Amino acid sequence: MKFSDIDFSAISRMMDNMSDEEKNKLNDMAQNMMNNMKQNEEPEEETDFYEALNINEEDYADFPGSVLDQIEAGSDLEVYYEDVKDVDFSASALFYAKATLNMLRKYIYPVFKNFFDGFNNPSTTTIYSYLYPLMNDDNIHKLFDEAFGTPEGWMELKNALQQIYIILNRAEYDFVSYEDLQLLKDILFNQEILLKIKNL
């Protein structure tokens, strides 16, 4: 039965012919039905992104709000497709890449602008902007000689950014598989690259 099929005037006439006692019984019956329906509804369990990504909220407490929002968006988009593994996870990957770029702009840009060309404005930098100087071992040694990080730390960042850059290109121009996304999350959260960017 559609809502438009209900004859409200007939219901109104029927209610007018009922005694107060009958009206009260009908109201009680309707209320009981509503209460039973509410009890039978399963409460929706919400998992926050810290739990979904198996990361410690305290470790990320002083991250920029925009970065946390992007991590949450990436996680939410993956959860949206949790029952389907053969879809394109590009949207989720793009948000994780944005979070990475914003971390690089906040924590690595202030160092790189003193050493390398092309670092005139953080908002014009890309992930490749930070990867390119690290492709040259001399630059890694230059950073270390000036007491910025360790060669191992910069090499780890270089390797991570290479993989993130590949997945970002797939997200922009091709298809990001479930496995690609798990690799990206492993780099960012299990290998803790986002935390290491902050502490380099």
TrEMBL record:
Organism superkingdom: Bacteria
Name recorded for this polypeptide: Uncharacterized protein
Species of provenance: Holdemanella biformis DSM 3989
